[in-house]
Amino acid sequence: MTPGEAAAELTGVPALEVRPLGGAVFEVDLADGDLVVVKRHDDPNAVLAEAKSLEWLAEPEGPPVPGVRGHGGHWLVMDQVERGRATPGAAEEFGRRLAALHATGAPAFGAPPPDGPEHASIGLAPMRNRPHDTWADWFKADRIDFYLRRAVNQGELTTDQAKLVDAVRVEAPDEPPARLHGDLWNGNVHWAADGRAWLIDPAAHGGHRESDLAMLDLFGCPHLDRVLAAYQEVAPLADGWRDRVPLHQLFPLLVHVVVFGGSYVQRTLTAARALP
């Protein structure tokens, strides 16, 4: 099936023109004048996980997300959101709305979105969503050990390097599960023409709210100081949250080790050494 055929089948509207946006993502003009984005995933579970993530994150008080127009098999169709630029005002609104989204909560740490699959994905890596009673047990099992084993098995980390990461103490303030975007690096914050920051490409699950904020910091985010200040005005973070940033960043760093290896190995070890 082509992207145009997928768009027509899942929206019920004929497709007129298809333009590649990079990778397996396409922009499609529909006959009714709408413009949609069509994505293809190799794994149908990844399609289901992303569709259910977008639906779960679509909270009125949270950051806006593209509407899901249809999904099935290897294909996901969403509303197109015109790109704009990051501004201090948009960053502050984003911070407030992200705090509101986190506060909507989740059934458990590690819980997938409603009707979402246990076996999901984050970028090009698999991701497992299983409910746990405590954040520490879940984060250690499904966000550190899960990728640590893969990194060792692939030969990206030595046994001694893995021991350094494994020895990290997994602790965070006792808070209820937050509703997380789950893959909130800067590339998944879409600064739109409407003056707002939209969330795209989520890997949503229940987790600790500090994880989303730590991932924003990992690769840099425009006006991050404004985002964090506005977030804190709505939902102050517990003391010592900055010291815990490397702990939360171990998850995405290990994902990058599994997928890309290379320099991410040293970044992962540096994060582990920064922790008690």
Summary tags:
single chain, about 280 residues, alpha+beta, Aminoglycoside 3'-phosphotransferase, Chain: A, domain 2, two-stranded antiparallel ribbon, globular
Write the layout of secondary structure elements.
Elements: H1 3-11, E1 15-22, E2 25-30, E3 35-40, H2 44-57, E4 68-72, E5 75-79, H3 88-103, E6 119-122, E7 125-128, H4 135-153, H5 159-166, E8 178-180, E9 189-191, E10 197-199, E11 205-207, H6 209-218, H7 224-234, H8 245-260, H9 263-273
Antiparallel strand pairs: 1-2, 2-3, 3-5, 4-5, 6-7, 8-11, 9-10
Helix pairs in contact: 3-7, 4-5, 4-8, 6-8, 8-9
How does this structure look, described?
There is one protein chain. This protein has 276 residues and is of the alpha+beta class. The protein has one domain: Aminoglycoside 3'-phosphotransferase, Chain: A, domain 2. Helix content is 41%, strand content 18%. The protein is built from nine helices and eleven strands. It has helices at residues 3-11, 44-57, 88-103, 135-153, 159-166, 209-218, 224-234, 245-260, 263-273; strands at 15-22, 25-30, 35-40, 68-72, 75-79, 119-122, 125-128, 178-180, 189-191, 197-199, 205-207. The strands form four sheets. The protein has a five-stranded antiparallel beta sheet with strand order 1-2-3-5-4, sandwiched between helices. A two-stranded antiparallel ribbon has the order 6-7. A two-stranded antiparallel ribbon has the order 8-11. The longest helix has 19 residues, at 135-153. It is globular. 43% of the residues are buried.
